[in-house]
């Protein structure tokens, strides 16, 4: 795949928090340039289908969810009352008369496989929209204290293709220049760093280590923090911090809305009393981080609109190069109809930040 173009398919994308889906409410999302009706039916089941009625293209999300005479949950189009079950099959065309033979069940709306776990909703997007979604792998299972109500949820839409958003997320060298809060770190106190990495399921991890000495935020937590940072295709990054018996999990999900827009969702859980106490201040910091990254994306776009060649250097850009290798292997393994083989090898990377 060309960097900055297209989307990975046949994989799971984060769509919403479980708490955001209300029984019977029809909610419109846009994922990978596709309108998606994502909802929770009247029996509490989660479903997803293309948010376009095949009759006259009205958004199904503008209709309503009802139950048919058999008690099944169906979505009714607001335009002509056509109904569809949550698998996307048309169940009724009200305008048909008794002598008009037409099999409504042959009319289908694209549907998507959905998994709800640990308080998160994941949607599986197939490469062939005509194929019934049959995921051959599960969405990520996150470590630690997830599943309960998050302490922090922050979102921002970046004017960026997901590829640029991902490499910006994993870039270890921009922090001292883009994020210069007094409580985080300063560009005047940079250190040479050496971190061990290892392949993981569909990605890689910076293996568990003590935070860098110039990372002030970790010191606020007390004790001896140890952190592990994991990236997984197509755009999931999580940091699991352990301080004694207490934990913090920070999850960042990148969901492409279209070719030029990526939604960044940051979620934090913790059972650490100090972290919970400083949550209001940390929330402000997380929001500031997102804004600073968003401002840098806008600045970067001034150069990207001229379609320049990009320069990748070792070791600071090695994670970005791994991401591109992972993407290529994902696409090739699907084309060859074989198992994915992780191209990342155990390595130690060095950089200054």
Automatic annotation (TrEMBL):
InterPro entries: Cholesterol_7-desaturase, Rieske_2Fe-2S, Rieske_2Fe-2S_sf, VanA_C_cat. Coiled coil: none annotated. It comes from the Bacteria. It is found in: Membrane. One of its GO terms (cellular component) is membrane. The keyword Metal-binding applies. Pfam families: Rieske, VanA_C. Its main location: membrane. Residues 13-123 form the Rieske domain. Keywords: 2Fe-2S, Iron, Iron-sulfur, Membrane, Metal-binding, Oxidoreductase, Transmembrane, Transmembrane helix. GO terms for molecular function: 2 iron, 2 sulfur cluster binding; metal ion binding; oxidoreductase activity. CDD domains: Rieske_RO_Alpha_N. This is (2Fe-2S) ferredoxin. It comes from Asticcacaulis endophyticus.
